[in-house]
Design goal:
The chain is an alpha+beta fold and 200 residues long. It has four helices and seven strands, in the order H-H-H-E-E-E-E-E-E-E-H. 14% of the residues lie in helices and 20% in strands. Strand 2 and strand 3 form a beta hairpin.
Length: 200
């Protein structure tokens, strides 16, 4: 009998600690309750964003591109929220003349819980009526002021227009999941290069 109680207890525990859409303390889409700081830690900043959003979650949570911005290049643990930049940030995609082609600020949903996650940069697929296709210089900016916080160096980032595939997340011809490459292994995490005071 004790065995069955233990199994029941474990099943209930998994039910309440799973990666559900609306955890206690998080705000639902369109509600006004505040997100607690403890629930932010369950967002898995630093990991392959699209592996969860585009595989495990519903269509309305799918992302066109996403990553995490950290406070410095010397991040030793991408799971440590203290290392991520807590700011209101956006991604800009620049052409070869450094003109802005797309900005995630133009596809912003104030009710998206992703904006509560510390260091999150993302583009919601349901709001983006275009396809990332071509080579772009990527710049991360403060969403409200446009102040530059980081920019890719001489290397442009290529996008093929194809959808994300978890089997080839680290795809250099289709760089949709920033954290798949910028994970401290293949290349350094995305980090603030200027205006670091914007990180809270």
């Amino acid at each position: 009998m004790k065995f069955y109680r233990l199994v029941f207890f474990i099943a209930v525990l998994f039910l309440f600690t799973g990666c559900g859409e609306d955890e206690e303390g998080e705000e639902s889409e369109g509600s006004s309750s505040a997100t607690t700081s403890s629930t932010r830690g369950w967002h898995f900043e630093g990991r392959d964003c699209l592996a969860c959003h585009n595989v495990d979650l519903g269509q309305d949570k799918h992302l066109s591109v996403a990553g995490t911005l950290f406070k410095s290049a010397s991040v030793s643990d991408v799971d440590d929220l203290a290392n991520s930049c807590n700011a209101d940030i956006a991604i800009e995609f620049l052409d070869s003349s450094f003109n802005k082609v797309y900005s995630t600020a133009d596809y912003y949903d104030a009710n998206s819980k992703g904006n509560k996650g510390q260091g999150n940069i993302f583009l919601l697929d349901r709001l983006f009526n275009a396809t990332l296709n071509g080579a772009y210089t990527v710049r991360i900016v403060d969403r409200l002021t446009g102040l530059s916080m980081a920019q890719s160096n001489a290397n442009t980032h290529s996008f093929s227009g194809a959808e994300y595939s978890i089997s080839s997340a680290e795809d250099f011809s289709n760089r949709l999941s920033c954290n798949a490459c910028h994970n401290g292994g293949t290349t350094s995490p995305l980090y603030v290069q200027s205006n670091s005071s914007l990180c809270k």
